[in-house]
Write a structure and sequence with these properties.
Elements (H helix, E strand, L loop, with lengths): L1 H14 L3 H10 L2 H4 L1 H14 L13 H4 L3 E5 L3 E5 L15 E3 L4 H11 L10 H11 L10 H19 L9 E4 L5 E3 L3 H9 L4 E9 L1 H17 L20 H9 L5 E6 L5 H9 L1 E6 L3 H13 L5 E3 L11 E8 L9 H13 L1 E8 L17 H11 L4 E6 L9 E5 L1
Parallel strand pairs: 2-5, 4-6, 7-8, 7-10, 8-9, 10-11
Antiparallel strand pairs: 1-6, 2-3, 4-5, 11-13, 12-13
């Protein structure tokens, strides 16, 4: 019954042209300043019941229709191999029989030969190991004495070609599966992948053979989230979630090339899905993601955990931050203008800028011509906004890194001491 009611409400909302714009206009009116309780009530309801969004329009979501089964991934993502025939007998009630690639006998043998310069005939038990491995992988029968030299010769050829040309092509596709939490496991090509790992090849083409049902459900939940909000604001780091985002990685590349540090505390304000924390953590930073929207936080946590990242997620307003407010770097992209809309938020931002201690800030302002800002308490142009931050913070210099890094008319600045 509840689901039917919410679906009916959702259909009514979608049927009214321009409703989203009208809601924005309503927000830009000073209704929340006149009736503060209304704002608290709306946030309280959304915080408690945002997950209802995921039950809306379920019939429209089918991950199988848009998924891609052939693409490149970082080789470091393939950590395990299964010797179970999971594609033919997908018993997900028990985890597949996974072995870490670096712990296999094949890996040890190929390391001995290719990195320690041991001749094949110097490696003990090589025929037995190769035969049993091929049998487990269902690639052939056990190798006999006549076939072994030809097989080893092919391995030498693949290694030589890969070393010279970063060769990653193969007549047999590298087949992988995706587990419950989005991790990849190898289904074949153990010898080839081992050679690529020894040569430190960065990316390899793969063919997805099977996905865990829980992973498919997560992808479909994410698609519902995307369809309800109309867009994905930031790039998604997991290769299987190849959804087009509003912004690309251009802003991160600009920041990476202009940040003065390679480690330290970094605060991402309005972190959305945590993309910048993913990327800066990989550079060595200790990242903190502040995001007030609970639906964003839900998926940010999922994406962080499946990528084995460690950044801290804070589900609150920046004005409620406690403890150590010292950071080397702050990322504040398209966020501060939200606090210009209302008088109370404006002065909370002034107070926040006065309390925070930071060496560098990457800042992207809004477009002051946006409808939502027409009746804002303050509506600065780009230069005025930069001057405002410098006036009220410990930062005193700025550089424009790009006038329009994504072609959206919003410059990217670096503010620093």
């Amino acid at each position: 019954m509840k689901k039917t009611i919410f679906n009916l409400i959702w259909l009514i909302i979608k049927s009214i042209p321009g409703l989203k714009e009208r809601v924005y206009t309503f927000y830009s009116w000073k209704i929340f300043e006149l009736v503060p309780f209304l704002k608290k009530l709306i946030y309280l309801f959304y915080d408690k019941f945002w997950f209802i969004e995921l039950s809306l329009s379920k019939s429209e979501i089918d991950f199988n229709k848009i998924k891609s089964n052939n693409y490149e991934i970082e080789l470091s993502r393939i950590k395990y191999i299964t010797i179970s025939n999971i594609k033919k007998n997908p018993n997900w009630d028990r985890p597949p029989n996974l072995n870490k690639i670096e712990d296999t006998e094949v890996f040890d043998i190929l390391v001995e030969h290719f990195t320690q310069d041991k001749d094949w005939d110097q490696i003990e038990g090589i025929k037995k190991v190769l035969s049993s491995t091929l049998r487990y992988l269902q690639q052939s029968n056990p190798i006999n004495d006549a076939e072994l030299p030809r097989f080893l010769e092919r391995l030498d050829m693949v290694y030589s070609k890969s070393k010279l040309e970063a060769f990653t092509e193969t007549s047999n596709p590298i087949k992988v599966g995706i587990g419950r939490n989005g991790g990849y496991f190898l289904l074949n090509s153990l010898f080839l992948i081992t050679i690529f790992k020894i040569l430190n090849i960065k990316k390899v083409p793969v063919q997805i053979e099977i996905r865990h049902p829980d992973w498919i459900k997560f992808c479909e939940d994410f698609l519902r989230f995307k369809s309800i909000h109309g867009e994905i604001y930031q790039p998604i780091t997991h290769p299987d979630l190849t959804f087009k985002s509003t912004y690309s990685d251009k802003r991160f590349e600009l920041m990476k090339n202009n940040v003065s540090f390679n480690k330290g505390r970094l605060l991402d304000i309005g972190a959305n899905l945590g993309y910048f924390c993913h990327k800066f953590e990989e550079l060595g930073f200790n990242c903190y993601a502040v995001e007030i929207r609970p639906s964003n936080v839900y998926f940010m946590k999922k994406l962080r955990d499946l990528e084995a990242k460690k950044f801290k997620i804070i589900n609150s307003s920046i004005f409620e931050l406690k403890g150590n407010l010292n950071f080397l770097v702050i990322v504040a992209l398209n966020i501060f203008h939200h606090f210009l809309r209302e008088k109370k938020l404006f002065y909370q931002l002034v107070e926040f800028l006065g309390k925070i201690k930071v060496r560098e800030m990457f800042f992207q302002p809004h477009n002051p011509k946006e409808k939502v800002m027409q009746n804002a308490y303050r509506n600065y142009n780009n230069q005025e906004f930069v001057d405002f931050i410098i006036k009220h913070s410990c930062l005193n210099k700025f550089t424009m890194l790009a006038e329009s890094p994504e072609g959206k008319g919003r410059p990217l600045y670096k503010l620093y001491q």
